Amino acid sequence: MPRRNRRDHGRPVDAGAAAGWARAESGRDGEWLVRSVPGSHATKVYRCPGCDHEIAIGVAHVVAWPADETGSVADRRHWHRACWQARARRHPTRRR
């Protein structure tokens, strides 16, 4: 008998947004849900709100969104890891 493929691969499943894949973080700027994106899964170019530079394809980064917004895709932002960790010391730059 052939092996049955599992769809969830043992990962937590959340019916809302991808919050089941995220960890909760709190800081002076509020409560956040944060998900790490490995370089192998980074298939698009994003602009980091911390430094206003591009996050290139293949670069590991984090996706963060406010914890109080349940599943709002529009509120998710892709950050360089260092920019996310330094967000309390830095302010977002102005977009050109």
Give the tags:
96 residues; mainly beta; 4-stranded antiparallel β-sheet; two-stranded antiparallel ribbon; 1 helix
- The parts where pLDDT drops under 50 for at least 5 residues are 6-19
Would you tell me the structural class of the helices and strands? mainly beta
Estimate the global geometry from the Cα principal axes: globular
Measured on Cα atoms, how large is the radius of gyration? 15 Å
Number of domain units:
1
Question: Kindly, what is the distance between the CA atoms of the first and last residues, rounded to a whole number of angstroms?
Answer: 59 Å
Largest sheet: 4 strands, antiparallel
Tell me the strand percentage band: 25-35%
Q: What spatial order of strands do you see in the largest sheet? A: 1-2-5-6
The number of helical elements comes to 1
Bin the helical content: under 10%
Number of strands: 6
How much is the average pLDDT? 80
SSE order, one letter for each helix or strand: EEEEEEH
Descriptive report:
The chain is mostly beta strands. The chain has one domain. The protein contains 1 helix and 6 strands; from the N terminus they run ββββββα. The chain has one helix at 81-85; strands spanning 23-27, 30-37, 46-47, 54-55, 61-66, 77-79. The strands form 2 sheets. Strands 1-2-5-6 form a 4-stranded antiparallel beta sheet. Strands 3-4 form a two-stranded antiparallel sheet.
Write a compact overview of the structure shown.
The chain is mainly beta and 96 residues long. The chain contains one helix and six strands, in the order ββββββα.
